[in-house]
Amino acid sequence: MRTYIFTSIIQGGNLESRIKEDIQVLPGKVMLYDQGEIHRNRYTAHPSKNLNIEFKKTSSQRKSVSPPSTLTPILISLSSISMQSFS
């Protein structure tokens, strides 16, 4: 089973560093993460909110006209990052 994560940026954003490039991630952008993909988020605009949907890729065992594999949602989450000042 292979896992993929789709992330939709709702509010805020950041600069995401991947192995070959840096990507500016802003509200409305949808990102795809492959299983085990190395990345780092920097310069996060606070508050930041993301909708994350995790999928697993499953293979069809029966022979039919349908596609050989499908994506099945296994986890949906909303993440929120905000800065707080501590005095």
Structure description:
This protein has 87 residues and is mostly beta strands. It has strands at residues 2-18, 22-25, 30-34, 39-59, 69-81. It has one domain (2-81). Helices cover 0% and strands 69% of the residues. Strand 1 and strand 2 form a beta hairpin. The radius of gyration is 16 Å and the shape is globular. The termini are far apart. The model has no long low-confidence stretch (mean pLDDT 75).
Question: What brief labels describe this structure?
Answer:
mainly beta, single chain, 87 residues
Query: How many helices?
Result: 0
Q: Can you write the helix and strand succession as a string? A: EEEEE
The mean pLDDT is 75
Q: What is the number of E strands?
A: 5
Largest sheet: 5 strands, antiparallel
> For the terminal residues, how far apart are their CA atoms?
47 Å
How large a portion of the residues is in β-strands, by DSSP E? over 45%
Topology, pairings included?
Elements: E1 2-18, E2 22-25, E3 30-34, E4 39-59, E5 69-81
Antiparallel strand pairs: 1-2, 1-3, 1-4, 4-5
